[in-house]
Amino acid sequence: MSYRRGLRLVCAIAGGSAVLLVSAGVADSRGCFGEATPRLWPRLAVLKAATPAWTAASHTPSPSGSSWDFNWDKRDPSSLINGKKKESSGEDPSAEQDNGKPKATRHILLIRHSQYKLSGSSDKERILTPLGREQAELTGQRLASLGLKYDILIHSSMARATETAGIISKHLPGVELVGCDLLREGAPIEPVPPVTHWKPDAVQYHEDGARIEAAFRRYIHRADPKQKEDSYEIIVCHANVIRYFVCRALQFPPEGWLRMGLNNGSITWLTIRPSGRVALRTLGEAGFMPPDKLTRT
């Protein structure tokens, strides 16, 4: 019995209990462990010395050293002046910079297309399934229920995104519908860590990556100084494009895009402040769909 008691005390000490450590020392000094039991106090002291002390510093991740680039979209007002002096015109450079500062916030809602027919041999044949059309209806209803004043609905020119956008637009009357080839699905950048089930050729990364990056630069940036009110823009496209956009906008390593998963018809919401700060309000939100309507194809 005394051996078991000693073993329990040792295990407790390994978990960092200083109270039990002291109690064990007192009990051992009084012979409570029995004459046949080796004296444990010296061994317990060794265990205590070998256990590193807990400090906040030892459990706090160290900063990566990367700072936020406020001119990530090349639209920071201070960079647009180009350091030119206005001595001849007598203009105040600070006043010019204030006039050129964005004042509105851009809200960009990225929608992944609904489920489509994987068996299609060409893009035109990869249209939405009956479930996919239901998903698009649910997404449209969700966007309408938010009560936001949408400025535009842009969509990839691929069939599944075009059809998804068309169904959503029925719930948002009066919102302009615009197609864009830059938003087509592709391979933005080789993912890290690599995957075995999907290995595009290097030339595909080279071509698709440049196109998707061009789409990012066209659509993901702070508001123009001429924009007076906050805007709400919808972009219906593809999982790879959305995941790459999110990494780039948050200044995360873009090669980590494949570590995220998005359901069909889900909503990803990016907010870009006039200062250039970016926030991810939702990533792949699909809670407005019943569980039996959720897919990720």
Describe this structure as you would to a colleague.
It is a single chain. The chain is an alpha/beta fold. It has helices at residues 2-14, 18-29, 41-50, 77-80, 93-99, 130-145, 159-169, 202-219, 239-249, and strands at 106-112, 152-156, 176-180, 231-237, 267-272, 278-285. Strands 3-2-4-1-5-6 form a six-stranded mixed β-sheet, with helices on both faces. Residues 17-22 and 83-88 have low confidence and may be disordered.
Please give the structural blueprint:
Blueprint: H1 2-14, H2 18-29, H3 41-50, H4 77-80, H5 93-99, E1 106-112, H6 130-145, E2 152-156, H7 159-169, E3 176-180, H8 202-219, E4 231-237, H9 239-249, E5 267-272, E6 278-285
Helix pairs in contact: 1-2, 2-3, 6-7
**Helicity range:** 25-40%
**Rg from alpha-carbon coordinates:** 30 Å
Strand order of the largest sheet: 3-2-4-1-5-6
Head-to-tail CA distance between termini: 61 Å
Order of helices and strands: HHHHHEHEHEHEHEE
Q: How does the major sheet shape up?
A: 6 strands, mixed
Write down the overall mean pLDDT. 85
Q: How many strands? A: 6
**Unreliable parts:** 17-22, 83-88
Gross morphology is: globular
Helix-and-strand structural type:
alpha/beta
Our count of helices gives 9
Beta-strand level of the residues, as a percent range?
A: 5-15%
